[in-house]
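Ticket #4471: structure export looks truncated?
Reporter: QA, pipeline team
Priority: medium

Steps to reproduce: submit the single chain below to the structure queue and open the exported record.
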Amino acid sequence: MRAVVQRVTAGRVTVESRLTGEIGPGLVILLGVGGNDTMAEVELLVRKVSQLRIFTDAEGKFNLSALDVGAEMLVVSQFTLFADCRRGRRPSFSDAARPEMAVTLYEAFVQSLRELGFRVETGQFQAMMLVEIHNDGPVTIWLDTDQLR
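Actual output as written to the record:
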């Protein structure tokens, strides 16, 4: 699994002018599921995202996690995080999971965050979405479960 995690002041997703998810201060997570991913990757990434110390304390230092601050989360499916651009000019997405597998792991990721007590909003799986991200900092972190092991 791959995730782009952005600390935000606000985030929202619309599909065909219909609001599907909106948060205040917290994290926008663009989530890509790979063809070889399992629940083990979901668990690893949920643990990392929830405990990543990217929120500032009273002294302005990155000492607080999403758990510490009660961050809201907006999770958006993003198969393009598995783009392979090594050959030619058109990216290949052959490393991304098939939609029927990806949706299951995407939903498990969202549910696992909710079980930790987070308020989690989402986009719409397999839809063309307009994502508004008000990046705070800016703080943007790239996570890949293959590199986290």
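Status: closed, not a bug. The export was complete when the record was re-opened. Leaving a note from the reviewer for reference: The longest strand covers residues 130-144.
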